[in-house]
Every structure is written in C-alpha cells, then in structure tokens.
Amino acid sequence: KPAEAEFKPRGMLSGLIMDAKTGEPVTDARVNISIRRIYTAQTDANGFYYFEKIEQEGNYRVGVNSKEYVGINDYDKMPVINLKKATRTVKNFELEKACMIEVRVVDETAEPIEGTRIVATSLADERKKQVGDSMYSQKTNKEGYILLGGFEPAETGYLITATHRAEGKWVEENG
Predict the structure, then answer these.
(1) 129-162 residues labelled b (16+ CB within 10 A) or e (exposed)
(2) How far apart are alpha carbons 56 and 37 in whole angstroms?
(3) Which end of the chain is less crowded, N or C, counting CB atoms within 10 A of the terminal residue's CB?
(4) Chain segment 15-39, per-residue pLDDT in tens
C-alpha cells in the first residue's frame, strides 16, 4: 500500500480510503462529517482526505460516498468520531467494490432528457433508504445518460426513479 507510506495527518480529521481487497486508493470518495453543520472533503489520487478545521467540537457522524465502492450512507451505520480543535484525528476506511448502473432517460419520442434527477433506493431495506449521497442531486447529462454507483451486490433489486421538471411556453399553455 504505497499511499500509507506517504500519509501524514493533516487538519482536524484526515485519513485514507482504500480498496478492502487490493489496498488501492479510492479516488472518487466524498467524505461528509456532520454535527449541526455538514462539512465535505474529497479524496485525492492517493485516497487521502482531510478536514482543515471545524467550528464546533463534538461527536460527528462520518459518511462516505463513492460510485465505484460501497460507501457508508446509512445513518445508523455511520461511525461517530469525537473531534476537538486541539487534536488531530485519523480515521481510515476500507471499502468493497460496488456495482454500477448506466441509466438513459428519454421522452416519448426517444429524445434524451437532460437534467433529470435520478434517485436509487434499496428494496432490501424496509426503510427504502437511498443509495449514494442524498446531499448531492444526481442528474442526467445532455444525452440523457447518468452513471449511478455505490450499489451493494444484492439478491433484492433496486428501485430507480427519474423526475424531471419542465418549464417554458408549452408548460405555461398546457399546464
């Protein structure tokens, strides 16, 4: 794990996010910590993340989101870390590979729809929790495509919902 040799704690909270099987860095992870406010950090090419400072000391919940890996999205499973302004805390994570799904959204004439909001939920969870980071909206590109990730391999399916808001002359005239 070459990134570990280079790791140096930085800021209030820092760490490495690595592939649980290969030890390779997870480079697309977003880490969220929250108490009353939400702070976000992104991993770099070495899987390194850090939070420079916080406004309030206390117990923070830590969520990790990635398209390529199964993150920590379930509030009940998020680790809680006590952060103090005078202390450097290190928290590393090892994540398992995730499944990814490419979705294309089109209208009734098969034309792509840009900006469609996509939400995926797990049917295996009785709470129907959303897969991925609910803080950031996932929307289709101009070709109507989006690559969804973070899906845990499961026997039970996932429900993918697409919603789109239309505005303009036709909507004004026809409701």
Answers:
(1) ebbbbeeeebebeeebebebbbbbeeeeebeeeb
(2) 9
(3) C
(4) 999 999 999 999 999 999 999 899 9
Give the separation between CA 105 and CA 107, rounded to whole angstroms: 7
pTM: 0.81
- Ramachandran region of residue 122, left (φ > 0), alpha (ψ -120 to 50) or beta? beta
How far is the C-alpha of 64 from the C-alpha of 77, rounded, in Å? 11
Q: Which of 31, 6, 7 is nearest to 93 (CA)?
A: 31
Dump pLDDT digits (tens) for 42-100: 999 999 999 998 889 999 999 999 999 999 988 888 999 999 988 999 999 999 999 99
The residue ranges of DSSP E strands in 105-157, in sequence order, are 117-122, 138-139, 145-151
DSSP 7-63: ----SSEEEEEEETTT--B--S-EEEEESSSEEEEE--TTSEEEE---SS-EEEEEE
